[in-house]
Amino acid sequence: MRILIAALVLFAGQMTLTSADGTYHFGFKKSVNGQPPSIDEEGFKGLLKQHGAVFTGDQSQKELYLTFDNGYEQGYTGRILDVLKEKGVPAIFFVTGHYIRSEPELLKRMVQEGHLVGNHSWSHPDMSQISAERIQKELTQVKDEVAAITGQKEMRYLRAPRGIFNNRSLAVSQGLNYTNVFWSVAYRDWEPKQQKGSAYAFKNVMAQLHPGAVILLHSVSQDNTEALGAIIDAARAQGYQFKSLDEMKQHTP
Question: How far apart are CA 43 and CA 90, in angstroms?
Fold first, then answer.
């Protein structure tokens, strides 16, 4: 087990952990009242900038980027896709090997309906603790099998499992032509047995909205599924537009 040194930063419920080998667990200071969120004090901003990683889009534009992590299926992704189709909203789904093997029809539907499928690694390892060769194998297997199922030949976006990364994992994935996509809106939504209702999801997401936000939602959440349509409508009522990551022209850091 890695021993974490005393470099723990807690901002508005987001925790950044730094280990003795330069490994980080992504965290950030949340947006309040539409103000920009921050990674200024977490210690890894320079790394993200060096390797072209994404924290937010253009913070001067009222645009939002909707992203889902799909490690496994809990029965909600079809309903999420229904809402996205009804509302005309693009998204990206970061998938694992388990999801690819168990849900090929949902993968096909994602691509057929104009969404992106991103890489969440094959087996969801701590990428800071595996070799460069293993990182390449993890990412290539996801890309190849998604292409075989859906016809999506390109895969340009990566979300590090559990948000854990270091200089080496960022460098290796960047060398494989991936953009590491982190997030600037999130809440504790990934525990199926700890759901608190759609109003709770709506409140947490809307409270953090800001220009250029990259929104992380987990598709295993019933709360997210039931709140998604209302979140989209309310965000649009505030003047926001939902865009695909492929449309992101500027980003921070």
Answer: 32
Can 51 be counted among the known catalytic residues?
Answer: no
**Is the Cβ–Cβ distance between 114 and 90 less than 8 Å?**
yes
Give how far Cα 132 sits from Cα of 37, 46, 62, 253, Å.
Answer: 32, 21, 38, 25
Q: Residue 164 is inside which H or E element, if any?
A: strand 164-165
Select which of 25, 51, 124, 218 is catalytic. 218
Catalytic residue, candidates 25, 51, 69, 251: 69
pLDDT given for residue 21 in this prediction: 64
- Measured between alpha carbons, how far is 38 from 92 in angstroms, rounded to an integer? 23
139 band by pLDDT with thresholds 50, 70 and 90: very high
**Residue 98 to residues 72, 75, 145, 176, Cα–Cα distance (Å):** 6, 15, 11, 22
Q: Are 14 and 183 in contact (CB under 8 A)?
A: no
Query: Tell me, what's the pLDDT at 11?
Result: 31
pTM here?
0.92
Burial class (CB in 10 A: 0-12, 13-18, 19+), 151: exposed
Examine the residue annotation and report whether 218 is marked as an active-site residue of this protein. yes
pLDDT, tens only, 226-252? 999 999 999 999 999 999 999 999 999
